[in-house]
Structures are given as C-alpha cells and as structure tokens.
Amino acid sequence: MTAGDRVGIIGAGIAGLATAKVLGQAGYEVVVFDKAPDIGGVWSRTRRYPGLVTQNPRDQYAFSDFPMPKDFPEWPSGEQVQAYLTAYAQAFRIPLRLGTEVTAAYPSGGGWTVETDRPESFDQLVVCNGVFSQPDVPAYPGRAEFEAAGGRLCAGPDFHDTEEARGRHVLVVGYGKSACDITVPISEVAASTSVVARTLVWKMPRWVGGLVNYKMLLLTRLGEALFRSPHPRGLEKFLHGPANRLRRRMINGIGDVSVRQFGLDTLGLVPPGQMEDIVRGASGLATEGFFEGVAAGTIRVHRDRTVVRLLARDSVPSAELSDGTVLPADLVVCATGYTQDVPFLPEKVRAELFDERGNFLLYRQIRPVDVPGLYFNGYASSFFCTLNTEMAAVWIAADLAGALRLPEPAAMRRAVIDQVSFLDHTTGDAHCRGTKIIPLSLHNVDQVLGDLNVNIPARTRAAHWLIPVDPRAYREITPTVLRRLARGYGAAPGLTRRSS
Ligand SMILES: Cc1cc2nc3c(=O)[nH]c(=O)nc-3n(C[C@H](O)[C@H](O)[C@H](O)COP(=O)(O)OP(=O)(O)OC[C@H]3O[C@@H](n4cnc5c(N)ncnc54)[C@H](O)[C@@H]3O)c2cc1C
Q1: Which of UniProt's keywords are assigned here (predicted)?
Q2: Could you tell me if the CB of 135 is within 6 A of ligand 1?
Q3: Considering the domain boundaries, does residue 210 fall inside one?
C-alpha cells in the first residue's frame, strides 16, 4: 500500500471523519460514504432526538487538534456536536458522498469493491458504520392491532419532534441515557409519561454532590483504574490488591452520593448492585430533570418490568407489561439499544469477523486478524470515543504503510479472545458484541500507541491520573507518526516494517 492508493470509508460519524482526516494527511485518496444526508452519525439531524446532549464534557469529546468552540456549554447539544463535526470535515477537506448507502462491499482484484448505486474500486476498506447506529426495536406481538388503533411505535433516534407527544400517553422503553434524555422533554408536554425499565442501572450525576464535575472522578486515569483490567499494572495492582477496600469505597461512594443527591431511596429507584456496575450499562450520566420529573409525578418509572405485548384495549392503543399492568400508550418510544452488524459484507468475510457468539474479533478493536485490507474504526466504544478513534486512525495509517510490527496471527487471535472473555466477566456480557470497552478506554489508547512506539510525555500521563484526560494532550501524535512514516521505516524509531 502506498500513498495515493484509494481507501473507501463507510460512515461519516466521528470514526469515519477521523479516519478520513488522518489517512488523507498520510497521502491516501479517501472517499467517505454515508447513507445519511448529513454528517455526524449519532449526531446527524436524522438521528437526533429532543433532549440529546453529550455525556462527555465538551473538551473530552473534541478531537485532539480541533477544539470545540469556547462558547459551547460544558455538555454540548446534539446540534452543536453536529455543527462541530461539519466544521471539522470542512477544515480538513474531507471528501464526502452523503446520501449514499453502501449496499455491499467485497474483496475483489486484491482490493475492495464498494457498491452504492454503482460499483467502485478501492485498495482498502475501513468500516466506520457505528456500533450505536442501528436501533434494536423489539418485535412486540400485537403491533398491527396497536397501530390500527392509532398507536405509534418508534425507535429513539426516529423520534424528532416533542410536539408529537403533546397531550398523548407516552411509554418510553429503556433506562439508558437515550431513554432518560427523551423522557424529560416528552414529560413536559405529554398527558402521561411512563418509563418501562427492565433493569435499573447506576447513573452518575453530572455534578457529584452538586459540586464536583464527574469528569474529575471518572474521566481520569485513576477513574479507569477503579475498574478491573485484564493485566493490572503499577497502581492498578495496588488498587485491586491491598487497597481494594479503599478502591471500592471510592467508586461505590459515588453511588451513595447519587442515591442521596437524587433521593433514589424515596423514589424507589435504587439500582441493584453498586456504582462499579456502571461498566455494564451504557456509561450512563443522569439526565438533568429526570429524577426531578419522577419526584414531581410527571414521569412514572415501572422498574423491573418489560413490555410483553402491544394491543388495543377498548380501541385505545395500549401496552401490557410483564406484571400484567396495561397502560394506555399512544406513542411507544423504544430506547432499547442497538444492533452491531455489518450487513454489507459477504458471508465469507463475516465468517472471519465473529466468534461463535457473534462477538466481533478485532485486534486492538481495529483489525480482523485474517481479512487483508479491511479495518474497523469506532468499534472501541469507550469513555473517550474521539481519542480512541483518532489514535486508531493513526494505527491504521501505520499498518497500511506496513510499518507495524504485529504479533503472529495466532497470538493476535488469542489476545482478542482473551479481551472478549475479560469483558464477558466484568460487564456481565454487556459489551455490545465486543465493541464496548469502557473499563479499558485508556488501556486501548495506550496499547495502540504502544504498537506505534509513540506516546505523550510521561509527566502528562501522570497528571491525567488526577485531572481529566484531555485529547489535546495527544495533538502531536498524528503529525509525529505521519512524519515518521513519510521519512521511511529506517528513520522511524519504533516503527518497523512488518516482515510478512
Ligand atoms: C444517543 C447517543 C449519545 C452518545 N453520547 C456520547 C458521548 O457523549 N460521549 C461518547 O464518548 N460517546 C457517546 N456516544 C457513543 C457514540 O456512538 C460515539 O461517541 C460516536 O459518536 C460514534 O461514532 P461512529 O462514527 O463510530 O458511529 P456513528 O456516529 O453511528 O456513525 C456511523 C455512520 O455510518 C453510517 N452508515 C452505517 N451503515 C452505512 C452504510 N451501509 N452505508 C453508508 N453509511 C452507513 C451511518 O449513517 C452513520 O452516519 C453516544 C451514542 C449515542 C447513541
């Protein structure tokens, strides 16, 4: 692979844009396809629901070399993130084919053919189609009867206008970030707003105890070290060994604060387990106004229940819960998660991607071991998505140049399988088919940079144990690696041409 070769990129969300920017700077001709009419993926206007804001504070959700505007709030809205990504794409002149769905992508002639309304050839393919892109809406029995009575069932990302809920009975299914975000604006206009939560999960207050930004506690290296890692080192060993009790008190103490802060006891909404189980959920930050709405009676949570069927009772669209309760439901919004899949890849390729349980097997969350010319980005959903995707893009650039010294395929496969087993164990299987690596967000960054033999200064990393990790600290990584690649392997310390 040489500079000037063509790389096809599927998806114009954060991962696709970061990949296109880095590979473009490395000299490749990139083309980014997205089926949506605008860029941003999760943040596209076609996917934004009312009330959508980031979980990450502004600085932690920016790319290393492109800060968010200073006048953005600490937690930008979906619209602001989309505007930021649009500015990023413009600043780096990213070639986009919007409104263009990739219907198939398959190996051909030593490269890849990408089919949209026509086939197009690329030397390499990077899949950035988003692990939280395809909503998973349950196939409830009774849907036809429910809809015939005037009910509407939709996924969270398909609910765009709060006015649709005005004066209506609304059921939100789910208890993750999207569910709680959507519920608040709905509850301000609906006749009734019920939330059906199969399992309550822990939610981190934005301001812990009303005072401390959660980023000071969780978005630091110390915050990550509070969770188990497969190969603990240094302070991690200490925290999970002699200081285990202190560690548990630190993380679960935040849970105690959140119980008090939100009055969860009184509301009957204390989740099972402890705050450290947050790794099982979707890294949920509590939505402003959600618990307040429950306290005020405008939001009713049906905990430990599921929707078992939709129906029309006395011609009124309704939903039956697992405890037999039947609720009127003109509108049912499902914030029930996403499916992770790559339907456009052929069976032969897919067979190489998954384990027998359907988990993605990607080395460093980037590269299938045995499919030449295929990469993934955005498959390390974490507390630091922008940083993980940006560093993954640099790793891809180095691998395309043949400059990474990677282990033998069997060792890579073993490393991936070990990581999936670790995630099984720590998250109770809640790792979105191997793509959600929250307890290992910074571990992944470190590993990727370790492969590149490059890093930020040790003193900055040390500071990140106590202050939130700021992607800006990593802004020299891309230019440094690209300079080394341009100079050739011999002059690139740490970057060694792969022998195979
Ligand atoms: C509601 C919500 C809020 C979130 N908030 C945060 C947050 O605050 N902080 C954080 O770190 N993470 C957050 N995340 C996680 C989020 O997924 C990542 O931060 C990031 O935006 C993902 O970017 P991506 O590019 O990997 O995927 P996406 O943003 O999903 O982009 C994938 C793109 O691929 C396109 N695509 C898919 N298939 C095809 C095809 N066949 N042909 C053409 N195009 C295709 C899609 O249209 C989409 O535009 C949030 C996720 C959700 C769902």
Answers
A1: FAD, Flavoprotein, NADP, Oxidoreductase
A2: no
A3: no
